Amino acid sequence: MALTQRLEFRQSQSLVMTPQLMQAIKLLQLSNLDLSAFVEEELERNPLLDRGADGPEAPVAGEPAMERSDYADGDGSTSYGDDGGDLAGGASGDAFEPGQEEWMNRDLGTRTEIEQTLDTGLDNVFTEEPAEAAARAAQDAPPSVYTEWGGGASSDDDYNLEAFVAAEMTLGDHLAEQLAVAFSAPAQRMIGQYLIDLVDDAGYLPSDLGQAAERLGASQQAVDEVVATLQKFDPPGVCARNLSECLAIQLRELNRYDPAMQALVEHLDLLAKRDIASLRKLCGVDDDDITDMIAEIRRLNPKPGLKFGAAKTQTMVPDVYVRPGPDGGWHVELNSDTLPRVLVNQTYYTELSKTIRKDGDKSYFTDCLQNATWLVRALDQRARTILKVATEIVRQQDGFFTHGVAHLRPLNLKAVADAIQMHESTVSRVTANKYMATNRGSFELKYFFTASIASADGGEAHSAEAVRHHIKQLIDGEAPVAILSDDTIVERLRVSGIDIARRTVAKYREAMRIPSSVQRRRDKQSMLGNALSAPASAPDRSRDTAAV
């Protein structure tokens, strides 16, 4: 077969991922906080973008803009000259207002009379601080063009409220203050500061400090001595290397670290397993004592450093509101507070186009106009897509909004994507980091997408979240003398029409942090024993009192 060359034309369609298209896809999965930060950056970068309703007020109609700009700052507050003294404008050569020259002459005459009587200048008699002098001069000044606009003696920018607010004390600062008092030797202070820098937010030191002595060029004994001193700092339990050591430090502070309590602290794994019988044998105490000891352990603070500079929890702001409609349906609307308001300043671009002569400047402002137009359209398309997906979710999960979690249907991304004629990846991006406020609480949009579990009788499949809710109801309603095992839960679910495996029940139970049947039996029997022993002890004490 001979190889030949030829020319031919082919026409085909392909999707080109332009930078703007990629950015529009990225906007879909941004949360409202990330979107606000992105829009703020675009507003600073693009001169043709303006804020919507949140922007600065427009100039008042009929007011001379040039005269206002001569006296007013950008924030609308009145500002005076840099000297701050010649309020009438005499030093700068400006004309006086009507009646202002007469007032100035009268004031100067009075000042001359007083100086002749005292035989000295007023500045030598009545000394004032510069700030007090400026405030007094502004107070005594006659009405002028400044006060007609509501201006004060100083601009609002001079008042900084943050200067009066105390800075938040961090755990490192709190420990550093105590370090300066506890140690006088520079070497010990250096070791202490190094260890304080290693303390995490919860107040713990790393469990292994073997490299600390080598890095500091000190002996291991010197590091251990500094650690022992740091563990006496406030708050109690700080600078511990594990939970047992943290609790032991707090118990020593309370003078409650006896041998029985020491045995309990050293076997916290048995306490986590609720193995009260083994703990009672190790501590050598009876049931009442072990109950009191466990209650005392629970009153301690396992993370003492969190009260200093703990990370602030960001309040969740819903993106979508769902309210009952008057016709029995559901009304879905977007939260307007989370939607950034930006506009394209076409007037400014038109004025610039008439004055710009350089090609580079023209291309720059043309790109700015294109980017601004694209951003406005992308934000509008994002809002429409979120509303469309949320409306379809509400339609699919109508039973949940009406009756509760038990009626949550199994739902996947493909079902929603096919209903609104979009791709699954688009629905996945829309539901990421978005929240919906309903009559049953606030939920992430991804909460409504759950796996399906087959029905035992061949009927409609059940949602995995509804099955978790059913398992929790069964465990909450079990009797202390009849604890339900995972196999028993499986049987009861099959009676209810849910076909599920035992390992799936165990996985759901562990995800909800519900202990096993053995641990639940120990807990409930211990609680039952304490409840039965309390009424029996009261009559004994009354009989002893009566006998005495």
Integer-rounded radius of gyration:
37 Å
* Largest pleated sheet: 4 strands, mixed
Calculate the terminal CA-CA distance, rounded to whole Å: 123 Å
What is the structural class? mainly alpha
Q: How would you describe the oligomerization state of the chains in this entry?
A: single chain
Question: Overall pLDDT, averaged?
Answer: 76
Tally of DSSP helical segments: 25
Describe this protein's structure.
The protein is mostly helical. Among the domains are: 136 residues, no CATH class; 79 residues, Arc Repressor Mutant, subunit A. It is 53% helix and 5% strand. The protein contains 25 helices and 8 strands. The strands form 3 sheets. It has a 4-stranded mixed beta sheet with strand order 3-2-5-6, covered by helices on one side. Strands 1-4 form a two-stranded antiparallel sheet. Strand 2 and strand 3 form a beta hairpin. The protein is extended, with a radius of gyration of 37 Å. The chain starts with 18 loop residues before the first helix and ends with a helix.
